[in-house]
Design a protein that fits this description.
Elements lengths: L1 H35 L8 H14 L3 E5 L3 E7 L7 E7 L26 H17 L7 E7 L8 H7 L11 E11 L3 E3 L2 E4 L1 E10 L3 E2 L9 H19 L6 E9 L6 E2 L2 E10 L2 H21 L3 E7 L5 E3 L1 H15 L4 E3 L10 H4 L4 E9 L19 H19 L1
Parallel strand pairs: 3-4, 3-5, 5-16, 6-15
Antiparallel strand pairs: 1-2, 2-4, 6-16, 7-14, 8-12, 8-13, 9-11, 10-12
Helix pairs in contact: 1-3, 1-9, 2-3, 3-9, 5-6, 7-9
Length: about 400
């Protein structure tokens, strides 16, 4: 019986890989078209039309216009009501000016697929072709979610969930993948349990009294106040949370508008706070606000501290992730599947993981035999397109294994 099962698994893997290879060049063309025409969050109108046309040409039924530019496609196997699972990709690009010399580099000024969403979308389209061709060989339904607005708060995942993307039919779990330039193309990585942090934006205005820099006694220096606030908040985060609960507080922008001889009236700070514990997350918000306001007041100024609450932490379901990792080993070989560490980066896929069991894994995208390229969110980020064949084939196999179990 075991030998028969292993034979069937091998046959299915061979079928999937064959279809993936047959469609590889087409999917590369699609990926390049998306890459050359990047659109920012919730503005992915051309990308939406491209995806819709692809699905229409393939004969895959779908609905578009969800949260303006989102798409949901359905592929039904035999007995479609028996079980439904979901697969997700994101559509949006980043406000970055591309500096690569690719023949298909961005045509849109100041916009670039520097986070690999072009790979996610084209890979899922390739997965759709595989599953559509094999629809008579599995039972259940696969829901394909092409989601807008992953890159900015409130996140397209949150809005699509609110519009009912996890209903009619309701998937029992969801799987997503994300490019990973730290890993060679052809390899993937998994981590069960807590994986990615929550992410909140901090917008802080310190109000003082400007004046001549040579006469500081006649001013209330907001730059000095801001400096004390930044240092004190770092100490607050490092001393008030357990060292076993990772947290990050970083300020990436400080703007005063003064000069060498001018103390400005106000200073604006922008930062991010990240955590893996919701109770601590809420407590930290209050602690930071109270401390910043107290410091400013004690130094004669005022502080307006706004926390823009972002994505929750992302947790991978233990059972689903273990099953997916084992399936990946079957599909790619154990040497091509690694274990991942915690990441303090954030992803709005986390919203799905808070509602239904989820598995979010990493897809290797680098060719280490060539000169190094930029990482995620950099202007010279380049993907080894070998990853597309891995991405679409593996996700199709994960879907079929998930439906079988």
């Amino acid at each position: 019986m075991q030998a028969e099962w292993l034979f069937l698994v091998k046959m299915m893997i061979e079928k999937i890989k064959k279809i993936a290879t047959q469609n590889k060049e087409h999917i590369i063309e699609v990926r390049r078209a998306i890459h050359a025409n990047p659109e920012l969050s919730f503005e992915e109108y051309e990308t939406c039309e491209l995806v819709s046309k692809f699905l229409t040409d393939a004969g895959i039924k779908h609905e578009k216009g969800i949260v303006k530019t989102g798409i949901v496609a359905i592929i039904e196997g035999n007995n479609p009501s028996s079980k439904t699972i979901a697969l997700r990709a994101d559509l949006d690009a980043l406000p970055i000016q591309e500096t690569t010399d690719l023949s298909f580099k961005s045509k849109n000024e100041g916009k670039m697929h520097a986070c690999g969403h072009d790979v996610h979308t084209s890979s899922l389209l390739g997965t759709a072709l595989i599953l559509h061709e094999l629809r008579n060989e599995f039972e259940g339904t696969v829901k394909l979610i092409f989601q807008p607005g992953e890159e900015i708060i409130p996140g397209g995942a949150k809005l699509m969930i609110e519009e009912g993307v996890l209903q009619n039919p309701a998937p029992i779990n969801i799987i997503g993948q994300h490019v990973y330039p730290e890993l060679e193309a052809g390899k993937v990585g998994f981590k069960p349990g807590m994986y990615m942090a929550s992410a909140d934006e901090l917008h802080v205005k310190i109000i003082g009294k400007g004046g001549h820099a040579a006469l500081p006694h006649k001013t209330i220096d907001p730059l000095l106040i801001a400096s004390h606030i930044i240092i004190s908040l770092q100490q607050l985060i490092s001393r008030r949370v357990s060292p076993y609960s990772p947290s990050v507080l970083s300020f990436g922008s400080i703007h005063g508008g003064g000069s060498t001889n001018i103390i400005p009236n106000e200073v604006n700070l922008k930062g991010t706070f990240r955590a893996f514990n919701e109770e601590w997350r809420e407590e930290a918000h209050d602690l930071m606000i109270n401390m910043a306001e107290s410091i400013a007041e004690g130094m004669g100024g005022k502080c307006e501290f706004e926390v823009r609450k972002g994505y929750p932490f992302l947790v991978n379901d233990d059972e689903l992730t273990k099953m997916s990792k084992n399936a990946a080993i079957e599909f790619l070989g154990a040497e091509n599947v690694i274990d991942l560490d915690l990441r303090m980066t954030a992803e709005d896929f986390a919203y799905y993981s808070q509602v239904i069991p989820a598995c979010f894994y990493r897809l290797g995208t680098s060719d280490f035999s060539k000169a190094p390229t930029g990482g995620l969110h950099t202007s010279n980020f380049i993907v080894d397109e070998k990853a597309l064949e891995t991405g679409m084939g593996l996700m199709a196999y994960l879907a079929l294994v998930d439906l079988k179990n």
